[in-house]
Amino acid sequence: MFPLTSLARVAGGIAAAVVAVAGCGGGTTQYEPFVPDRVIAFGDEATALTTDAPSGRNYSINAFGGDDTPEDTSDDVIDCTLQPNWVQSLASAYGFVFAECNPDNVTELKAVNRAAAGARVAEVAAQVEAQAAAGGFGPRDIAALMVGVNDVVELYGRFDGSNEAALIAEAHERGAQAGRVVNRLVELGAKVVVANIPDLYYTPFAVKEEAAFPGGGRASLLSRLSQAFNERLGVTLFPDGRYVALVQTDQRVMAMALAPSAFGLGNVTEAACATLPPDCTTKTLVSGASASSYLWAGDVLLAPVGQSQIASLAISRAQRNPF
Prior knowledge:
single chain; Rossmann fold
């Protein structure tokens, strides 16, 4: 594992993480909780569910249902309701399910998932316009959105040792574009729960890049790109808690990385999955890993504990904001 830069950074990070738990995204007391008509999700792997069999798999660590026995694995079936991703949990808080994960065959579906693996900001903008063309949004719809990790990874891949300033500028622009997507959702009539991205400094991807480029400061570069994206996203958002609730994924992930024991975590630097998501299950983990003790499922994909923490923040924001 690479060092966490300086003691000052760590101390500052812990302080910021504590502030994050207090939260932001509204700040106005409401006496009648907002109850949505639908939850409509947009984004990348952090939000997507598979449509191919077995449908409803997420891009974390998928679990098996009650028939999962070590004696007989022939009838083991993935249960997509176990270890859900953040938008599944958000929808579930209102009693909604997505078509991709509907084992009880609910006929009146009130959750829609348009997220797709590999999506960047441009693709998520297209997801929003597709929903607008397919019936749009009602005033009591929650649009849930998380995007940007793939953008940052793409920009990082362009680094040639001399073009950081240009990449930071592009990360700023991608963040602003994401903010404009959120504002477009408000314009279309939705209430928006938007999650920013984790600081990729704390990911297994950063650990690997540090090892591949010793002394190159690659983890710190990933951090600067992540922060540039999130900063511009934050300042571009329509600044009104009646329409937009911000989930500070970056602060919560940093808290988990810096104080893992507080979240019951034993490993915050390595990926748990030996098989890449969405095919990763509790049976395809690296030796010693578990869904409950690892922060990361993949190089930049959160394991169930991380997804659950983001879900808790999202549910809190949705219920506390004066929508």
